[in-house]
Specification:
The protein is an alpha/beta fold. It is built from 11 helices and 9 strands. Helix 1 crosses helix 11.
Length: 320
């Protein structure tokens, strides 16, 4: 199993082999999580701090559950409403945390690059739970695991990513990961929601859903991120849904067995039709949530192994 990283700050620095290592181990943790007794002692004796400078429900809960199932001592720091911002105060926060000798630090921050800054100031392993518009690596990994389990592979698929791409760190991480795994990627969005420089990723660009979804294996919808918008990016939510919201009629352009994904939280009737989101034959949105716990368990397990190796300690065997 190949995984050399000390931190998980983004997908960009992971090799295809390392991505596969995470997915393979996560598959084993899916099995563990479906048992009556879900506990392991992989992180026994280790301390995990979850520090979220942005509000989160599923990501924070997923990391907390993952750490507890692996036997870690888990501490949640509620800093989403604090005045801590990127700069000296953030560095002081890192130094304070470092003095507590944590082993794993999970961080979500509204500023791109803030998690990298923290990682440079601490001695523990840092996991990026989303930083600004930069990356959300564990979301891309759980999406990849969901796709692989549904399609039997994570290579040579046609994947359509639709919606608010300009403000989405989920889209960026998925673009990088899916590109590394030799997939055909299509981006579908109004021109106002396409990020500058997107051509560099080698994607096909569309502003028409029917054309973009033609023959797609995977349809990945994105949340419309109103909180990151400072202008008139769309005429109205009603108009946005009419042109770019996913419904059965638009999905008909994709392959008959195409799967529908959404990282959540969903705005039903804006990005996706509610009935389609709940369609167990097409939607894998609930599977994404389940895969999130397993993937985060795998990431923390692999980082803990490298941390122990760096400290000259014997790695705990995986109890799955």
């Amino acid at each position: 199993m190949i995984f050399r990283a000390r931190h998980l700050l983004g997908i960009e620095h992971l090799s295809p082999q390392e991505i596969v290592s995470v997915l393979d181990l996560a598959d084993r943790y899916v099995d563990l999580n479906r048992r009556t007794v879900k506990q392991s002692d992989v992180l026994a004796g280790m301390t995990q701090i979850n520090m979220f400078f942005e509000n989160s429900t599923r990501t924070q809960a997923s990391f907390e559950l993952a750490g507890k199932r692996l036997g870690a001592d888990v501490m949640n720091m509620s800093v989403a409403q604090s005045s801590v911002k990127k700069g000296e105060t953030l560095i002081d926060t890192a130094l304070t945390l470092n003095a507590m000798h944590p082993d794993l630090l999970v961080v979500r921050h509204p500023s791109s690059g803030a998690v990298n800054l923290l990682a440079s100031k601490v001695n523990c392993a840092v996991l990026n739970a989303g930083d600004g518009r930069h990356e959300h690596p564990t979301q891309a990994l759980l999406d990849a695991l969901t796709i692989r389990r549904a399609k039997g592979r994570i290579q040579r698929l046609t994947v359509a990513i639709c919606g608010d791409i300009a403000h989405s760190r989920v889209a960026r991480s998925n673009l990088i990961l899916l590109g590394k795994m030799e997939n055909r990627i299509r981006l579908i969005a109004p021109p106002t929601l396409m990020p500058p420089g997107v051509d560099a990723f080698g994607c096909e660009l569309f502003d028409d859903m029917a054309a973009g979804l033609e023959g797609a294996d995977v349809v990945m919808m994105l949340r419309l991120q109103r909180e990151r918008m400072d202008g008139g990016f769309i005429p109205s939510e009603r108009e946005y849904y009419h042109r770019f919201g996913l419904d059965a009629e638009k999905l008909a352009a994709a392959k008959p067995d195409a799967i529908v994904m959404h990282p959540g939280p969903m705005n039903r009737g804006v990005e996706i039709d509610g009935e389609l989101a709940d369609d167990i034959n097409r939607s894998v949105i609930q599977e994404q949530v389940e895969m999130g716990v397993a993937v985060r368990m795998a990431c923390m397990d692999l980082l803990a192994r490298n941390l122990r190796a760096g400290r000259g300690m014997k790695a705990t065997e995986v109890m799955v």
